[in-house]
Write a structure and sequence with these properties.
The chain is α+β, with helices and mostly antiparallel strands. It has 27 helices and 28 strands. The strands form seven sheets. An eight-stranded mixed sheet has the order 5-4-7-2-1-10-13-12. A hairpin with a 5-residue loop joins strand 24 and strand 25. Helix 4 crosses helix 5.
Length: 863
């Protein structure tokens, strides 16, 4: 990473000086196949021509390029000495003219970390696959450019590739004379250009629509994946969601899709969920399901398809000026993913998933020491990389959901329409969006922005109920609180619901009022005189972003009757609130686990159920008192097995409980059952143990020493695919052996031989909750290594190592002290590195507080 950063000030200075007229990029990737090239990284030729203007002739600037070597540089016909102008990440440009042409001929490196041009060799058949991934600033690893979002330009790509390959880019392409040439793009930012190349399996379709002016819009559709995944590829469903999304966004945005074709590539070893490259969206191939999955997985894929599609307008057509306003694309896309899923597809409960899953991500991020306003202070590219987080995505989307409630859906969408038309192919800041929303809503957007976009932290809303002697509500108020570190009390548009049990025992809402909560206490006058409630749900219908708390009566009701809440969204909100209380050390972890054991079997929403399983696993591993973990694990395994056997045969609930049972299985009988299910000597009616479920069952067997290297090798032979290899690597690293841990550590920390996907798999296997003592030697090793790793490896691998190998399972005051000692001794470390360590430290301190709550003791000094 040394020398590759770019500051906001440098970017602003360059944008004030330069404007770009166009790029021509020629890549030769024939070197991707065949034997390795010898010493050093495998490289490809990249020739870039940039035409640009300088409004101060005679001034100096620079172009960006990260490459092993540069063969030639020419500026306005003058040949420059590459050894004098190229330093490994920048090309110095002196004495610029008013109109300039820069030509750079370089040898760029194929990537194994998912950054730049990633090269993947399929172990199943030896085929080579390439794809690019750039956000926020890795296109400079593939071609010379001005790597910042506000220097947009049209691009022309041409690619020389092996004869049997197909190549895709943002524009439509065709092959002639051995070269793939692609149509010029509209003006776009460097980070959303794209090349995908290889022997991919490719399926086509088309979308047609008659626009309001009578013209016919035709969009060629394509979907592609590795040949090895073709038997599992349900392209018809991908196209169905794609067409539904295009209809929805055309109905609501009144701006036709502007980028020609619409291809979607599912690619291997992808670091992200997906990327919104116009005309060529890339997704992680795990969205192609090799085995049986639940409806929640299909909903998640649909959400991602729609999220990326929304970016065609929010992000690609109109792009933020700098990464401070990353929310202008990511928050909107996250909101639109759920909004369109509900409005256009079969997934009508997507707002439940949003409330339960996406907001949980936001609540965690917003309580870390690194929390930041939705409009963040992004000083440089390393800051930008770390800000693709729960605040920018999920909190930002939650704020937009609140905004829709605040200004009304019609005003919100009309503001979006004006925003697109006013700033098409341009760059914007916060004020550009607020101004159109003020026009359409008549609301003071500056005050809303100050509270919601420009301050950090999450508020807590708690009901306060006073009853009359007649058994009715005398007064109901909402009390708002904020953390001392972020004391902003925001305006909230909330619904307050009152619930009582019916004669049949169902817990149902019988009264509701919407109110603007402002300041520390707001009286809900509309509910005075209502029958006394058994449960008060603040933020009913999930209109705002807050942590919901309960009064004593409501909490007591949930302990006994949570499963009786009939409305699935209300029930999901109750679960979310209880989980937040567990994380905040207000509810013992064992109490949360008990609620799950008692009521989760009645949960109808499969996405909520799977989230409950993940939370419960986390509660046991991190928040339960150490002396209760063994008991808790046994109780959870017993409960999971009971629900597994009781679930409808072949149902998605049965599959979810099978996975959860595997995650908590530890006793000999549990492991013997898993082994029997794998070998066919045990059977649970309706449970199909397909290949993916086989690996799920093998994971705990390996971690507990019940599946050795031979067993895992045999399973890989059964599933000799890229997916199988990742599973095997994870299981190998999870075995309870000092030698295994030493080898895994060396492979990740001391070597860069593994690809990003195998680094991720090795880290996932390394730290097992049942192996806390085995991991003891690695606390000191971690703190001794992370600064070197951060300096020497790519930022993606650096993030994976620093986050993934933090000694969180050595959850003691000693580990907290070791973390503080490192932070004190490394105040001058890279800010992004310190942020990651501070976040991990905060998670550990939170875990220790929760453990103290669960054990009934106070923990001084752990805050």
């Amino acid at each position: 990473m040394p020398g590759e950063n770019l500051s906001r000030d440098e970017a602003r200075e360059r944008a004030a000086l330069l404007s770009v007229d166009g790029y021509e990029v020629s890549l030769d990737v024939r070197s991707a196949v065949g034997d390795a090239q010898g010493e050093g990284p495998r490289t490809f030729r990249s020739v870039t021509t940039i035409r640009f203007r300088c409004n101060e002739p005679g001034a100096s600037s620079f172009a960006d390029l990260v490459a092993p070597s540069v063969t030639a540089v020419s500026l306005n016909g003058r040949d420059l000495d590459p050894s004098e102008v190229f330093d490994g990440s920048r090309i110095a440009l002196e004495d610029l003219a008013a109109d300039n042409e820069l030509v750079v001929d370089a040898q760029c490196a194929y990537s194994r970390t998912g950054e730049g041009l990633h090269r993947f060799v399929d172990p199943e058949d030896g085929e080579v696959y390439l794809y690019t991934q750039y956000e926020p600033a890795d296109s400079r690893r593939v071609f010379a450019n001005f790597e910042q979002p506000d220097l947009k330009a049209p691009f022309r790509f041409e690619v020389r590739a092996p004869e049997e390959w197909t190549v895709w880019s943002n524009g439509a392409g065709e092959r002639a004379d051995g070269v793939w040439r692609f149509a010029e793009t509209k003006p776009i930012s460097t980070y959303i250009t794209c090349v995908v190349a290889g022997p991919y399996h490719y399926v086509t379709d088309s979308y047609e629509r008659v626009l309001e002016d009578g013209t016919r819009l035709e969009i060629p559709l394509g979907a592609l994946c590795r040949k090895g995944l073709a038997p599992h590829f349900d392209a018809d469903d991908v196209f169905l969601i794609t067409k539904q999304g295009l209809d929805f966004f055309h109905d609501h945005f009144d701006y036709p899709y502007p980028f020609g074709k619409y291809d979607q590539a599912f690619v291997p070893e992808y670091n992200l969920g997906a990327m919104e490259n116009p005309g060529m969206v890339t997704f992680r191939e795990e969205y192609i399901f090799r085995g049986k999955v639940t409806r929640a997985s299909y909903e998640g894929r649909a959400n991602t398809i729609l999220h990326e599609m929304a970016h065609m307008w929010f992000g690609d057509l109109v792009t933020m000026e700098w990464w401070d306003d990353l929310w202008l694309k990511e928050s909107f896309a996250d909101f639109m993913g759920a909004f369109a899923n509900v409005g256009a597809t079969r997934f009508k409960d997507a707002w439940i998933t949003f409330a339960n899953r996406r907001k949980a991500w936001a609540y965690r991020a917003d309580q870390l020491p690194s929390t930041h306003p939705i409009t963040a202070d992004i000083r440089d590219l390393e800051d930008a990389k770390l800000n693709f987080d729960g605040i920018t995505y999920a909190k930002g989307a939650s704020a937009l959901k609140q905004l829709v409630a605040y200004v009304g859906q019609d005003a919100f969408l009309e503001g979006a329409r004006r925003y697109f038309k006013r700033h098409a192919y341009g760059n914007t800041r916060l004020g550009d969006l607020l101004s159109v929303l003020e026009e359409t809503s008549g609301r003071d957007m500056a005050a809303w922005s100050r509270s919601w976009l420009q301050t950090a932290g999450v508020n807590s809303l708690t009901p306060q109920v006073l009853l009359s002697g007649a058994g009715t509500v005398d007064e109901l108020a909402v009390v708002q609180e904020a953390a001392e570190s972020h004391p902003e009390l925001r305006p909230h548009r909330v619904a307050v619901g009152l619930y009582r049990r019916t004669a049949e025992g169902a817990l149902e809402r019988y009264a509701r009022a919407e109110v603007d909560v402002e300041g520390p206490r707001t009286v809900v006058a509309e509910l005075a005189g209502a029958e006394a409630p058994e449960l008060v749900l603040v933020n009913d219908d999930d209109l705002t972003y807050c942590k919901t708390r309960f009064d004593d009566t409501s909490l007591a009701t949930l302990r006994e009757h949570l499963g009786a809440v009939t409305d699935p969204l209300a029930r999901a909100l109750c679960w979310s609130a209880l989980w937040n209380m567990t994380r905040d050390a207000l509810l013992p972890a064992r109490d949360f686990a008990a609620l799950v054991l008692r009521f989760a079997g009645r949960e109808s929403d499969i996405g909520v159920l799977q989230m409950l399983h993940a939370w419960t696993d986390s509660a046991l591993v991190h928040y339960a008192a150490p002396e209760w973990r063994e008991t808790g694990g046994r109780l959870l395994a017993e409960g999971a097995l009971r629900e597994l056997r009781d679930a409808a045969p072949g149902s998605e609930h049965q599959l979810a409980w099978a996975r959860f049972f595997a995650s908590v299985a530890a006793g000999e009988a549990d492991l013997a059952l898993l082994r029997g299910l794998l070998e066919g000597t045990e059977k649970i009616d309706g449970l199909d143990v397909d290949q993916e479920l086989r690996w799920t069952f093998l994971a705990p067997l390996a971690a507990h020493g019940a599946a050795d290297e031979g067993v895992l090798a045999a399973e890989l032979a059964r599933d000799d695919t890229a997916s199988g290899k990742r599973h095997q690597v994870r299981c190998l690293a999870s075995r309870p052996s000092e030698a295994v841990k030493a080898q895994a550590w060396a492979q990740v920390v001391e070597s860069d031989a593994l690809s990003n996907a195998l680094v991720e798999a090795t880290i996932a296997g390394f730290a097992q909750p049942s192996q806390r003592e085995l991991l003891a030697p690695y606390t000191d090793k971690y703190f001794a290594a992370i600064e070197r790793v951060w300096a020497e490896r790519s930022i993606q691998i650096g993030m994976d190592v620093v986050r993934g190998l933090f000694p969180s399972l050595r959850d003691s005051r000693d580990t907290l002290d070791a973390t503080d000692a490192w932070l004190s001794a490394h105040e001058d470390a890279a800010p992004a590195l310190r942020r990651l360590v501070l976040e991990a430290r905060d998670d550990l301190a939170r875990a220790l507080r929760a453990q103290a709550c669960d054990g009934g003791a106070a923990l001084p000094g752990a805050a």
